[in-house]
Amino acid sequence: MATTSSMWSNGQKLYRFSVNLNQASRRFSESSDKGWFRSLFVHKVDARKDAHSNLLSKKETSNLYKIQFHNVKPECLEAYNSLEAEVQNRLHQDKDYPCEVVGSWNTWYGEQDQAVHLWRYTGGYPALTECLQKLKTNKEYLEFRKERAKMLISRRNQLLLEFSFWNEPLPRQGPNMYEMRSYSLKPGTMIEWGNHWARAIKYRQENNEAVGGFFSQIGDLYVVHHLWAYESLQSREETRNSAWLKEGWDANVFYTVPLIRSMESRIMIPTKSSPLQ
Description:
There is one protein chain. This protein is α+β, with helices and mostly antiparallel strands. It has one domain: Alpha-Beta Plaits (2-Layer Sandwich). It has helices spanning about 5-35, 50-55, 75-90, 125-135, 140-150, 190-200, 235-245, 250-255; strands at about 65-70, 100-110, 115-120, 150-160, 175-185, 210-220, 225-230, 260-270.
């Protein structure tokens, strides 16, 4: 039978071996993190150096975007679309207003009887403020708001910035259907999301389906909107499936899914007046 002294000695040796093993494992993990794992990122930003709005948005432009979600009374949707198109053409294409409509849609699959509008303010927050001040004194616009209010059930909006690595949302010919995929992220994960998607976006541009990518600044926070265009639901399925055949796309999905709190997909049809057809 082993003596108490020898048992104590063996226990010390086992403890030292365990400590050394843990230290080696930790060094290997840290080394792997600096090598293989970090090599997944192409466009990397450091969250400690600045606000994510400055790190992830486009530096060459100072554009601010507004997205509107209007839930319309079912019997009023056609009249609403006509009224909205008239105002967009007569007011917001005026050169005195530093804003323009990027796209207008009706939700086809998702929340029903819903209108979605995406606006661009050239010049950022000062341009937004200028537009709001001018519209307050525009009698025609004030009458429009009163008439529109009769048609709405609810409405909400967000102010957005563009991701620096996404496509610029430019007018395009149709016919197309659009998908807006909206992600509510865990607070503090926007930088990580941006780092992954800066690499992943290249897997989703071959068929010209990538329209624009945005993240919220005011309204619901830590929200991302990805806007895609497809010829049909069938082409959407084929395009999305083809991404899985490309080496690296699976890694993007694997690492971004844990960052998401909730997500939503809208299939949208452009209105007749939308620049994005």
